[in-house]
Design brief:
Largest sheet: 5 strands, mixed
Number of helices: 11
Structural class: alpha/beta
Order of helices and strands: EEEHEEEEHEHEEEEEHHHHHEHHEH
Helix content: 40-55%
Number of strands: 15
Strand order of the largest sheet: 3-2-1-4-8
Radius of gyration: 20 Å
């Protein structure tokens, strides 16, 4: 099946065309443009590529992946914090009326879960969890062989769980799972830990001091042997293990797949994560669960949108 995917992000939006077939996906073409303040301005930039791709390929359906909150059933983008000018935009109706394509909208965590389940690390499972672990922390849930969205589409907001009484702020809550386990959260954790020391750690100084810390630079420092940077990742990994233990105990998954920071820095997070998981999770549930980095890597956004299109065409999601 040849499908079109639209990956809507706060910084850039991408359109792709690919073929999905029997647990495999092949990306044919892709084009990205900078995201504008309004959807109409953004689609004006995307339209030449969309028209060209539809001319060159027999596109059957379109899948749309976008950060939430959104209303998947109505195809409406609500109020994602990085898409402020898009509130109330009915993107599926726009795609139908302008391009003549039936489409389905899913939040990015659900879309990535479908992609990893169909084409990546979760192939062959019936119960899988995907965690974004990027700018934020959200989960997509595949339960009993189907995407589970909850009563009103808000299932999987695990980043909102509070793991500590205090800590970095994520999802509007201090000490949350997202606060400890996201790109911005780890940077904030580093600054929080550094502020309690008598002197600023060398790696923070090298980055230009507070306000300039990034998770990418911390990972580079940790791999270069910086003890403080290693401690930051160990602290994040321990909270990751605690959060995963809750998911293991409640949902009893076969696989938990993590993208984003974990995909790039699992070597720095796994030791503390595994130690905490063993201590916190039910032994029998943990025994049947694997924790893996996303297999689709940096192209997961494109594959996610294509997975939504395939699932919509096959009736797996309505």
């Amino acid at each position: 099946m040849i499908c079109m995917g639209l990956d809507i992000g706060g910084t850039k939006c991408a359109v792709s065309v690919g073929k999905t077939d029997g647990g495999a996906v092949r990306l044919f073409v892709r084009e990205e443009v900078p995201t504008r303040n309004s959807p109409q301005e953004t689609f004006a930039l995307l339209t030449p590529a969309i028209r060209a791709f539809m001319h060159d390929y027999p596109v059957a359906r379109a899948g749309i992946s976008c950060g939430g909150p959104l209303d998947s059933e109505r195809g409406v983008i609500l109020s994602p914090p990085n898409l402020r000018g898009w509130h109330g935009f009915c993107i599926t109706e726009y795609v139908r009326s302008v391009y003549g394509l039936a489409s389905r909208l899913e939040n990015d965590a659900n879309a990535c879960a479908l992609a990893e389940w169909k084409f990546g690390a979760g192939r062959g499972t019936r119960n899988m969890i995907f965690l974004t672990f990027g700018t934020g922390l959200g989960a997509g849930l595949i339960l009993d062989g189907r995407l589970y969205s909850g009563t009103n589409g808000n299932a999987g907001e695990v980043g909102h769980m509070r793991l500590e009484k205090s800590g970095p702020v994520g999802f509007g809550k201090a000490g949350s799972f997202e606060g400890f386990c996201s790109g911005g959260g780890i940077a904030a954790l580093a600054e929080r830990m550094a502020s309690k020391l008598p002197e600023m750690p060398a790696c923070i100084t090298d980055m230009g001091g507070y306000g300039n810390v990034t998770t990418k630079k911390l990972a580079q420092a940790a791999r270069a042997g910086d003890d403080f940077a290693k401690k930051v990742f160990a602290a994040s990994g321990a909270r990751l293990g605690r959060g995963l233990a809750v998911l293991v105990d409640i949902l009893n998954p076969e696989v938990i797949v993590l993208g984003g920071v974990f995909m790039r820095s699992s070597d720095l997070l796994v030791p503390a994560m595994e130690k905490t998981l063993v201590r916190e999770a039910l032994t029998e549930s943990l025994r049947v669960c694997r924790v893996l980095p996303a297999e689709l890597k940096e192209n997961i956004g494109d594959y996610a949108a294509l997975a939504v299109a395939e699932s919509y065409a096959q009736g797996d999601i309505q």
